[in-house]
Design goal:
Length: 223
C-alpha cells in the first residue's frame, strides 16, 4: 500500500514537471502581444500628408526661390497634416501592413516625397534669411523619419533613415550659422508628448554647452 502511494506521488510530480516545462516552451515560442495602436494615430496623418504630395516631383535642389515657393505653397495642406501627425503618438499598423504589403511601397514613396517638400521649405527659408524656420523644416524631416518607423517593418526603418538624412545633412551645415539667441528661441523639445526619444530624435538633443547632432557634439554658437 505504501509503495503504491509512493508511485502515485512520483507520477504526480512527473506530471507537474512536464506540465511546467510545456508551459515554458509554449510561452517562449509565442510572439509577444503587440501594444494597441494609439488613438488618434499620428501615422495616419503622416500617410494622408504623403498621399497629398504629387508622385512626380522634381528634385527641389534644382529649384530657384520661385520654384521652391511654388512647391511649398502647393503642398501647404500636406505640411499641415504632417505637423499635426508629429504632435501625436505614431505607430505603424504592422499587422495591417503585412496583410496588404503592396500598399507599403506607395505609402513609403509618399512619405519620402514629403521629406523632400520639407527640404524645399528649409532651402527657401535659408534663401530668405529665415534660419530658424529652416531649422524647423529640417528637424521636422528628421522627426518624420523617426515617427514613420515606430513599430514598423525593416523597410519602414530604411526609408525613415533616408528621410532623417534629408533633414540632418542640411541641418548640420546650418547650425554653425545660428546665433545663440536663435538656438535658445527654437523649441527643441518638439512641443509634443510622445514616447521616449529614439535615436533619430536624440540627434537633436540639447546638451549643456553643446548641440548633439547624429552623435557628434558641436559647440553652440555665441550670440
Amino acid at each position: 500500500m505504501a509503495q503504491r502511494i509512493r508511485i502515485m506521488l512520483l507520477a504526480l510530480v512527473v506530471i507537474i514537471v512536464l506540465a511546467n516545462v510545456s508551459l515554458i516552451f509554449l510561452s517562449v515560442g509565442r510572439p509577444p502581444a503587440r501594444p494597441p495602436l494609439p488613438n488618434p494615430n499620428g501615422y495616419d496623418d503622416l500617410l494622408k500628408a504623403g498621399q497629398a504630395v504629387p508622385r512626380t516631383m522634381d528634385n527641389p535642389a534644382d529649384f530657384d526661390s520661385d520654384g521652391l515657393r511654388a512647391l511649398v505653397t502647393t503642398n501647404a495642406e500636406a505640411l499641415r497634416l504632417l505637423r499635426l501627425g508629429l504632435t501625436r503618438h505614431c505607430a505603424v499598423p504592422t499587422d495591417a501592413t503585412i496583410a496588404n504589403f503592396r500598399a507599403i511601397s506607395r505609402d513609403l514613396i509618399g512619405l519620402r516625397s514629403l521629406a523632400m517638400v520639407l527640404s524645399a521649405e528649409g532651402r527657401l527659408a535659408e534663401m530668405e534669411n529665415r534660419p530658424a524656420d529652416a531649422t524647423r523644416s529640417y528637424v521636422d524631416a528628421i522627426r518624420l523619419g523617426t515617427e514613420m518607423s515606430r513599430g514598423g517593418l525593416m523597410i519602414n526603418r530604411l526609408v525613415g533613415i533616408a528621410c532623417e538624412g534629408v533633414g540632418s545633412i542640411p541641418l548640420a551645415k546650418l547650425l554653425p550659422k545660428l546665433t545663440g539667441e536663435q538656438m535658445r528661441l527654437w523649441p527643441w523639445n518638439w512641443n509634443r508628448s510622445t514616447a521616449a526619444p529614439s535615436r533619430g530624435e536624440r540627434c537633436c538633443e540639447m546638451k549643456t554647452g553643446s548641440f548633439v547632432l547624429n552623435g557628434e557634439a558641436s559647440a553652440i554658437p555665441s550670440s
